[in-house]
Every structure is written in C-alpha cells, then in structure tokens.
Amino acid sequence: MKLLSMRTSRRGSGLDTTIGWRILSWIVIALLLLFTVVPLAWMLSTSIKSQVAAMQQPPRWIPEVVTWDSYLKILDPRQEGGQRFLRYFWNSLVVSIATTLLSISVTIPAAYAFSRFRFHGRNALLLVILMRNMFPAVIFLIPLFLVMRTAGLVDRHASLIVTYMTFGLPLSIWLLKGYYDNIPRDLEEAAQVDGATQFGAFLRVTLPLSAPGIVAAAIYIFIQAWNEYLYALTFLNSDRRLTLPVGLQAYFSEFITDWPGLMASSFIMSIPVVMLFLILQRFFVQALTEGALKS
Fold first, then answer.
1. Over pLDDT 90: what percentage of the chain?
2. What CATH code would you report for 73-291?
3. Measured over all CA atoms, what is the biggest interatomic distance in the chain, rounded to whole angstroms?
4. Distance (Å, rounded) from C-alpha 231 to C-alpha 239?
5. What is the pLDDT of residue 37?
6. What digits encode the pLDDT tens for the residues 79-88?
7. Nearest-angstrom CA–CA distance, 260 and 286
8. Phi and psi at residue 121, in whole multiples of 5°?
C-alpha cells in the first residue's frame, strides 16, 4: 500500500513538472511573439500618421486622423517618390531572385556530391565552406570591393549577386546535405536497377524528394539578399541601381526624418519576405526537421 502511494506520488509529481514546463514554454513563445509583433504594429501605426502626429509626445498607437498619403506617395508611379521607390523595389527583386536561382543551381549538385560521394579532403572542404560563416561580413568588404573593381562590376547588380552567393552558399549547402543524408540510398539503387543512370535516379527520385530542403535553402538565400545593406551601399553608386535597403536613406535628411514615409516603405519592403515565409513555412520546417536527423 505504501509502495503504491509512492508510485502515485511520483507520477503526480512528474505530471506537475510536465505541465509546468508546458506553461513556461507558452509564456516564452508569447513573449517572443510580442517581441516580433509590437515593432511591426508600431511601424504600421506610424505609416498611417501625418508627419506632425508621428512626432507627437507622448506617442499614440492609434492616430486621431488616419492618412494614407505615405503609401500613395511611394506607390504612385506618376510621382517622383513613387518612381524611385518602385525602381528600388524592382532592383531588390531582380537581385534577390537572381541570387536565389544561381545559388540553388550551385547548392543542389554541391550538397548532393558531399552527401553521396566519398573523396579525399571531403570533410576538410566541408569545414572550410562552413568556416566562411564564422566571420562577420564586414571583414570581406574591402577585398571583395577590390575584386569587383578589377572585374569592372562596381555599380552593377552582378557584383551584389556574386557577393550574396558567397554569403548564402555555405549554410544552404550544409542544410541541403543534411537533407540528402536523410534520403535512403536504396531508392536511387532501385531506380538504377530498373535501368536509370545515377544522374537519372537523382533527377527522377532524389530531386523531387528533396523539394522541402531546396525550398528552405531558397528562402534563406532570398531573405539574406533582400535585406542586405552594407555591400549594396558600397558597390552601388548610381541612384537608378540602388536596392531598397539603401534607397530608404532618402527618407533621412540633416534636419528632419520622414518617419511616416520611412515606416510605410519599410512595411511594404517586409511584405514579400513575410508572404514568402508564410506560404512556404511548411517546407522550411520540414527541411530543418528532417535535415537535422540521420537515417
């Protein structure tokens, strides 16, 4: 009887501990959600205010008069501000998409080779690739600028595309390699028994199965290219080639900052990334989960 009561007590204690950890996890998630949502809410609130209301003290979350002038100013192609913003938006879109497509075209065969083939120096090369992300991006700024100047790529979008590829490839190769490691080799061997070549087995079997990993790598590369500021500021000189992160400097001046215009531009700039992640988050989570596990 005493033994039974001790077991019941331990079971109840374990249940209480599980509930406590679950409550704590929900509290942490709620705090992280607030940390993410509150700045976005304040950005949206400021973007629908007038310049005077944006400078009001104490600040107010809900403006007395809602105005959409800032959005009309940056989205109307008939106005100079709209022409410049849409041009910056288009430049960022071209650079980010080109970077993503070229990086994925390199990531897929590289990750597959590291996963399936055994060659001399394989582990060392993998480590060297990953070591690229151990250093801050500013360290490579001057060397890459000298390379781009020698190649005649300064003030061209190609300089950003090549540079962003060097940023995105290391982690995307590691991510996709872990995903390929989790795909059984037996599937490819069965396709080869049926007459397919190794490349044909990869194309028809492995590549479709690795779609979530490819999507996750593409999201990572696109977001990194879309938000990058330092290299775009250094490599681009002419206004017509600027990307959005650098173009937002137009809202800053010596004496006053156009806070509603800046917040409206920043809010619109965040929409493609948020929509991309919301649409493809299932593939992203699946790739991170399966890529972290070994068969």
1. 20
2. 1.10.3720.10
3. 86
4. 15
5. 86
6. 888 888 999 9
7. 38
8. 80, 15
**Mean pLDDT of the residues in the chain:** 83
Beta bridge partners of 252: 257
Rg (CA), the chain: 25
| pTM for the predicted model, two decimal places | 0.82
Burial class of 237 by CB neighbour count within 10 A (0 to 12, 13 to 18, 19+): exposed
The region that residue 289 occupies, defined by phi over 0 for left and psi between -120 and 50 for alpha, beta otherwise, is alpha
**Tens of pLDDT along 136-173?**
888 888 999 999 999 998 999 999 999 999 888 888 88
Would you list the domain boundaries of the chain? Answer: 2-47, 73-291
By the 8 A CB rule, do 251 and 261 touch? yes
Specify the pLDDT at position 290.
55
For the residues 122-146, what does the mean pLDDT come to?
83
Reported confidence tier of residue 16, pLDDT bands at 50, 70, 90: low
Give the burial string for 248-278 (b: 16+ CB within 10 Å, else e). Answer: bebbeeeeeebbbbbbbbbbbbeebeeebee
CA-CA distances (angstroms) from residue 232 to 42, 118, 154, 161, 201? 27, 38, 10, 10, 40
d(CA 182, CA 295): 5
Q: φ, ψ for residue 257 (rounded to 5)?
A: -115, 135
Residue at 248: amino acid letter: L
Burial of 123 (0-12, 13-18, 19+ CB in 10 A): exposed
Residue 176: both structure tokens together: 């996709």
Average pLDDT for 89-112: 93
- Which backbone phi and psi does 79 adopt, to 5 degrees? -100, 155
